[in-house]
Amino acid sequence: MAPSAIAARSDDAPATASASRPMNWIAILLGFLTAVGPVSTDIYLPAFPALEASLHAPAGSAEMTLAIWFVGLAIGQITMGPLSDRFGRRMPMLLGTLIYTLASVGCAMAGDIWTFSSFRLLASLGASASLVIPSACVRDISYGNEAARLMSRLVLVMGVVPVLAPTLGGFVLSFTSWRSIFWASAAYGLICTVLVARVLPETLPERERSILSPLALATRYVTLARDRGFITNAMIAGFGAFMSFTYLSAAPSVFIHLFGFTPAGFGMLFGVFAACMIGASQLNGVLVGRIDAGRILGMSVGTAVLGTVGMLVVSVVMAFAIRGGAVPHGIALVPLILAMMVALGTTGIIGPNAAVGAMADHPRQAGSASAFIGTLQYVLGALAGAFVGMLPRTTPVPMAGVMLMGAVIMLLMVLLRPARPAAETAEAVHMDGEAPGAPPLIH
């Protein structure tokens, strides 16, 4: 963007028309900001053993820091969303990225696991702003199929860094300490802080901001939860995240400890799975508008069920081999990896469509709706991590079984959705020529 364009912008100027900022440019900016959460989740996964050894922490402590991270993201999002509805998108985003940056410095300097966990919790509270607010910005400037396409572009951009993050983390561990990972995270947070302060446009004009009060906030969330179109789509998005977080929690133990992958090798495998998610999200951008969004979502959930069933079948076969003293390696791991590619790849389609469908009928509460979805995702993510942590990790069966459970619940939510999806309703509003923010249609 030209400097003159930045100078001409009022802090409260809406970006609904996006005349001076093409949608692609907005997607790149929002994607870069949204990637703070995923990259901070993924980059230190290969460092779990080194982290525990350096801080003299008991086995399993690294997994607990991941659960703490998820808890902080859940708490932070449910507050950052309403704050962004009340004060606009830029100020809460600026505060969040600054907190994340300072807390990442604290993680890098921590001398024990308790100090590290405390700063990790604080970092997650700050990072929650970058997860919930960009999605609300998408709803501010677009709706219907256009919102689904923009969300898919956002997933593409935010996916580039998480693909590289574990590989980068493993590479760093080959030359230096795990602490360098968090110094790099602090540098990334500083860049995001500068971008928010200097470049990010305000997408929510003052006239559309809502008054914040505890009673109004509670009423807002109760209203959202009672909307069948919202809650079923939110649950689909939530259990899609449940599948992904089950993988994140279990995969380091399965592939590094059980199958003998190096941290760098695990990072490369992680990149393959993330590339599947990104590719699926871009396929979604092509399909939206040509195929009904509700049908796309249903087919994707069905594919996720098939993929996780395949994972479970292969894992059971592997479990019998492991009990017989033969740990699978090399070509024997291909069936499991292929099944995981199918199962995890679908989340790149499920997430954007479910989120857009959930928020479409709530344009004036986009921040709260996005926060509700994000909080649900990370609460379920924390539960997935705790659940997996309680199960034995001597075979990949627990990972596959828990992921299958999430896929089955998503399928149930697809069957319980209203006959007319919320995303379709929003598109009908657009076709009728009503402005964004008009009262949603009742169906």
Automatic annotation (TrEMBL):
Main location: membrane
GO cellular component, one term: plasma membrane
GO MF annotations in UniProt: sodium:proton antiporter activity; xenobiotic transmembrane transporter activity
Transmembrane regions listed in the UniProt entry: 25-46, 66-83, 95-116, 122-142, 154-175, 181-200, 230-248, 254-280, 301-322, 328-350, 371-391, 397-416
Chain ranges of the Major facilitator superfamily (MFS) profile domain: 26-418
Cited Gene3D superfamilies: Multidrug resistance protein D
Keywords on record: Cell inner membrane, Cell membrane, Membrane, Transmembrane, Transmembrane helix, Transport
Membrane topology per record: Multi-pass membrane protein
CDD domains: MFS_MdfA_MDR_like (cd17320)
GO biological process: xenobiotic detoxification by transmembrane export across the plasma membrane
Source organism superkingdom: Bacteria
Subcellular location: Cell inner membrane; Cell membrane
PANTHER family: MAJOR FACILITATOR SUPERFAMILY (PTHR23502), POLYAMINE TRANSPORTER 2-RELATED (PTHR23502:SF132)
Similarity remark: Belongs to the major facilitator superfamily. Bcr/CmlA family.
Protein's recorded name: Bcr/CflA family efflux transporter
Organism: Gluconacetobacter tumulicola
